[in-house]
Amino acid sequence: MSEVQLYTDGGCSGNPGPGGWAFLLRHAVSGKEMEDSGGEPETTNNRMELTAVVRGLGVLTRQTQVELFTDSVYVGKGISEWLAKWKANGWRRREGKRWAAVKNEDLWRELDQLLENHVVTYTRVAGHSGHLENDRVDELAVAAYQKYL
Fold first, then answer.
1. Where are the domains positioned within the chain?
2. Cβ atoms within 10 A of the Cβ of 3, count?
3. Whole-angstrom Cα distance, residue 56 to residue 10?
């Protein structure tokens, strides 16, 4: 299995508001890199964080061992803690004593399918802390939503 590092970020100007996502994918052995980014005129920060991961994993053409670096606790906990429970509960989550639909269910379902094809480990990085790759994907995500301002 190949080993890659996936750095992702998403953000909005206002929440909701114009948003952008970005990823940087690096092959660990060769050092070869690929970047991509995009934006939407009206979205949320969490949707953009998820979109970055989905788009990054989506470019992989074969089963791959991936180390995911993100500053998004939402994405990290979603992958490592919540996703299995949501699936078991019919894509619902507890909201007090009631069941509620999982927010961003379409993206979580897409991510779930991608996670079946890859071995993904999650590493949290602190945002805006001088982490070179995290700063780069933040810069790309911000540039992606600038055209909607």
1. 2-81+119-146
2. 13
3. 12
CA atoms within 13 A on the CB side of 20: 19
User: Quick one: pLDDT at residue 10?
Assistant: 97
CATH homologous superfamily of domain 2-81+119-146? Answer: Ribonuclease H-like superfamily/Ribonuclease H (3.30.420.10)
Query: Residue 22: is it exposed, middle or buried by C-beta count within 10 angstroms (0-12/13-18/19+)?
Result: buried
pLDDT, position 128: 75
Q: Average of pLDDT values for 87-108?
A: 96
Which 8-state DSSP code applies to residue 102?
A: P
| Average pLDDT, integer, range 48-59 | 98
Consecutive H or E run containing 130: none
- Distance (Å, whole) CA 146 – CA 126: 23
Question: How many other C-beta atoms lie within 10 A of the C-beta of residue 48?
Answer: 28
**pLDDT, average across residues 97-119:** 96
Q: How far is it, in rounded angstroms, from Cα 41 to Cα 12?
A: 10
Predicted local distance difference test score (pLDDT) of residue 59: 97
Residue 1 is predicted with a pLDDT of 63
Average pLDDT, the chain: 95
Q: Which residues are known to be catalytic?
A: 9-10, 49, 71, 128, 138
